[in-house]
Amino acid sequence: MTTVLLVDDQSLLRVGFRMVIESAPDLEVVGEAADGRVALDQVAALAPDVVLMDIRMPGMDGIEATRHIVADHPASRVLVLTTFDVDDLAFAALRAGASGFLLKSARPDELVDAIRTVAAGTSVVAPRVLRRMLDLFAGHLPLTVDVTDADGPHPRLRILTPRELDVLRLVAGGASNSEIAGELFVSETTVKTHVGNVFAKLGARDRVQAVIIAYECGVAGRTGAGSSSRGASGPETA
Question: Is the pTM of the predicted complex or chain greater than 0.90?
Answer without folding.
Answer: no
